[in-house]
Amino acid sequence: MEIPETIVCVDCGSAARRLTLPPEEGWEVGDFVAYRCTGCNDRWDLVVAEEDGPAAESPYAAEIRALFESRRDPALPPDQR
Ligand SMILES: [Zn+2]
Hints:
alpha+beta; four-stranded antiparallel β-sheet; globular; 4 strands; 81 residues
């Protein structure tokens, strides 16, 4: 499972850097991943969600998936997404 080094902050559109180091065994569903936004300095605590599984119990699951999907075209600045 691929967890990005940076995500796009949903508040300000800046890059949020991952704080959490990858576990030796790799990421697993349910792992917590913390990000710190370089723009507004917000901390984002997200939970690794199944890529193709049914809706997870965590309210963050849909959010992190949306964040990852929003990175699919990183060439676009946030205000053009
Ligand atoms: Zn931000």
